[in-house]
Write a structure and sequence with these properties.
This protein has about 300 residues and is of the alpha+beta class. The protein contains four helices and 15 strands. The N terminus is likely disordered.
Length: about 300
């Protein structure tokens, strides 16, 4: 190679270097284009999610088939689908869901006890109607009555005077009723619970502190229920309740949360041939808080 050729190559190399340097200055350096790289993966993920949606729908149907109805006006309490066992049995696991909105004109419902009598499945339901304003209270009372009336109850339709007398400005209303093989009976019972933010239940005392109603007992305008069930309130300090029967057996009823209230419910059905010797109430730390002997004894 002559000296002139060598000089020409060096000049060309210098020009190429200058050009490349200028090109580098115009290139914006940033993160790798992950969006483009993962677009295909996202499309595959969306297809998988679409397939999973059908599976979730099947799970929901399975829960409904397990005994809890979810639909317009039939909502799980506190977002928890709670299926309790028959008296003396074991509780089925609860299924968590998203918290529900408290609507005074749309109740939250939960099963507090269930069992079988003469080959027919019975359930005791608690329908919690959240605290209504005074202006809404008559409409709420009429909706409750319409459900009762449709099931055959002959309780009178509530009036404005009735609501004025019985409306409580800090309480949720709980309607208790029975179904047999899915059909609601005319029987109705009632409770009131402190609404969230209201006065909580008092700490459990030595007497067990279990207040409530004996659902299924006959009263004016009522028909016989398949079994009597003690539906009792349980405060936030309680971890469990153990019922000991006179025949020596025992039962631990599930603590059922309802409508965002710190007060929970237990349901204990009477048992043929025996009575309840005691309801022992234990704290969240396992300590005995008190013993009640006045229910189902």
């Amino acid at each position: 190679m002559t000296s002139e050729q060598q000089s020409g190559h060096e000049e060309l190399a210098a020009q190429v270097g200058i050009g490349l340097a200028g090109l580098v200055d115009t290139v914006e350096i940033g993160p790798a284009p992950l969006a483009a790289l993962t677009a295909g993966g996202r499309r595959r993920l969306l297809r998988r999610r679409a397939a999973l949606t059908g599976a979730v729908a099947l799970v929901t149907v399975a829960v409904v088939g397990g005994g809890v109805l979810i639909g317009p006006g039939l909502r799980p309490a506190d977002g928890t689908v709670q299926v309790t066992a028959a008296a003396g049995g074991t509780a089925a696991p609860s299924v968590s869901a998203s918290p529900v909105v408290r609507d005074p004109l749309s109740p939250a419902r939960v099963v507090v006890a269930q069992g079988v009598v003469d080959g027919k499945e019975w359930k005791t339901w608690a329908a919690l109607w959240p605290l209504a304003t005074k202006e809404q209270s008559l409409e709420q009372a009429k909706l409750i009555w319409q459900e009762q009336h449709a099931a055959g109850s002959d309780l009178p339709e509530p009036t404005a005077a009735y609501v004025q007398q019985y409306w409580q400005p800090a309480s949720d209303v709980v309607n208790l009723y029975f179904t047999v093989d899915g059909i609601r009976l005319p029987y109705n019972g009632g409770l009131t619970l402190a609404a969230p933010g209201g006065t909580p239940a008092s700490p459990t005392g030595p007497d067990g502190g279990l207040s409530g109603v004996l659902a299924g007992a006959l009263g004016k305008g009522q028909s016989a229920a398949p079994v009597r069930v003690a539906v009792l309130t349980v405060g936030a300090d309680v971890g469990k309740v153990v019922v000991t029967w006179a025949d020596g057996s025992s039962y631990e009823p599930p603590l059922v949360a309802l409508g965002g209230s710190s007060t929970r419910l237990i349901g204990v059905a009477e048992r043929p041939g025996t009575t309840a010797a005691s309801f022992k109430v234990y704290g969240t730390g396992g300590q005995l808080l008190g013993t009640n002997t006045s229910w189902l004894s």
